[in-house]
């Protein structure tokens, strides 16, 4: 629906136009009627108006001055002039202000609808053209982003495309960014949109692109016009402002690795690698950035780390349940790795070795845990990590899991017995075996048999039969069921076998037991 404004110093004219024209039929609504040009301009500044119908002769600001203001301020409003026969010479002066049409006041009922339709056609054409331009801009920006992404990931890009999309017009600064979400919330799209907004606020003098790479990892590309002199310190200052905004407005933990400024498109991939290398060196908690140093980041005289020794010490401390010292040792390891001559991929492998060793050492304490699933999650987390801080955090999480399992070994063994006993209580009427129970509890049957007997002094088969006989004795005392019916009720399909087992645990058969308890 098109929004109409009426401007005339005569109330009767305004009311007549408002009520005598079928605005609904024209898909229009009158949103305002004003007495002069000043009131009209005040309204247009803060409100949307599509078509303005105005008189020429008015106090304060007349119609011609109103048209002039609209054109000079580039308000997107189509103007229709109301004029008397005697004012037509004035109306002609309004032509230079791109007025849509002129309508004689005395004939507005017949002529104004046609003028409004002409105005809406112009509006529709402008909107179509604007949409085409916007689509063209969006397509351009989208493909430019595609090219920058390919360059960063070292994929082929033609020289023609680089020139067509002005990729070589800029210098670049690349940032590798890891996003961690508080409380496990993950709204990647909204987070990226917010970061784009922060970039637009803090780096309004440069173009920028935000590229989702994988899960919580994104790349930020700062495009700097080659004609502008911009230092890395200035870019870093802007990134620090973004981190402050994130801390204030978003539930995110963001870490940034920042490359040096480069002036060749062929260096974009190398800059992205350096940004990732800088990112990997972050060990601290909270919103942080690390700048890639053009000098070697690694000490050439660094001593190799004894990972075997670290593994043994961390495992021993963990198995003792000493969480505080285990975490201190892990933090020490992280700092040593940062100082070492190891690549980040090698650091990942070292952390994986240590965490896997911890898991293998706690398996014996609670075999009911799905350690395969824990190791799968561990591998994925380490593989996805982009910072040393993330690797340290993953290691601490594995220590937490291990300590929770090892805190009280007796309780853990009792848990196995309890799980077996509960299964028997629920399923004793069915034809169950040791294998059925081990399958249900995801345990090795040999391990289950040994662990259960060690804790209780009896076998799992004894436990099944003893529970069944206990139930049978209650039925023999308190029911009139026949012996074979009681056998069936407690899980024995063969009456002879029921009698044999009953004698084994009571030194008398079911009939004798019933008679002695009458």
TrEMBL record:
It is found in: Cytoplasm. The lineage of its organism: Bacteria, Bacillati, Bacillota, Clostridia, Lachnospirales. InterPro entries: CheY-like_superfamily, Homeodomain-like_sf, HptR, HTH_AraC, HTH_AraC-typ_CS, Sig_transdc_resp-reg_receiver. It comes from the Bacteria. GO terms for biological process: phosphorelay signal transduction system. PROSITE patterns: HTH_ARAC_FAMILY_1, HTH_ARAC_FAMILY_2, RESPONSE_REGULATORY. Keywords: Cytoplasm, DNA-binding, Phosphoprotein, Transcription, Transcription regulation, Two-component regulatory system. This is Stage 0 sporulation protein A homolog.
